[in-house]
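Researcher: I'd like a structural prediction for the single chain below. Treat it as a standalone chain; there are no partners to consider.
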Amino acid sequence: MKHEALKQNSKKGQTSKSVPCFMLHVSSRAGFTLIEMLVSISIFMVVMTVAAGSMVSIMDGNRKAQAIKSVMDNLSFALEGISKSARTGSGFSVSGSLPSNSFSYTDYKKNVISLSLGAVSDSLCPNGIKRVKVPVAGGTISECLTAKEVKLDTLGFSLADGDLVTIILNGTAGTKDKIKTPFFLQTSVARIGF
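Model: Treating it as a single chain, here is the predicted structure.
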């Protein structure tokens, strides 16, 4: 009321005594109460905590999917290389009982190729597919066909009719415990007769 009277007096050109602002009547609905602020902040924090948890789960899932894709691409590339080389090779042989852990053949360039599971202590290829190539010209070339993220528990070879080899891979993909994923792959390679 006093506030409105002051406004009217100032419009008419009348001077009035200034009133300190703490004496002005302020509506009780002009802002939020402390309880309203606490409740809204609490609700906001709960929503943000749930959202942050969901984001962490999504990011972990994405990392796991990327690790699996990378490993499967690597394994597919390694198996395709083995298949392509063995398909045109000859003299398939496996050692030991079936499924064997070693497979040898002669490729189309007359190089002797041996495939086996790298030992854990092997600095070149721990728990991976190790290929040893003995070229016709002599010497030995050793290489690992799988990435370090691939840890094979089993690499087996089964030979049927001398021209068909089945390759069995069993292991885990990923380096961190959170994203490690087990896998089992099997493929067969038939020799193409020339």
